[in-house]
Amino acid sequence: PGWQLADAGNRLTRTWKFGNFAKALAFVNKVGELAEEEGHHPDVTFGWGYATVEIWTHKIGGLHENDFILAAKSTPPTAS
Amino acid sequence: PGWQLADAGNRLTRTWKFGNFAKALAFVNKVGELAEEEGHHPDVTFGWGYATVEIWTHKIGGLHENDFILAAKSTPPTAS
Question: How far is Cα B61 from Cα A38, in angstroms, rounded to an integer?
Answer without folding.
Answer: 38
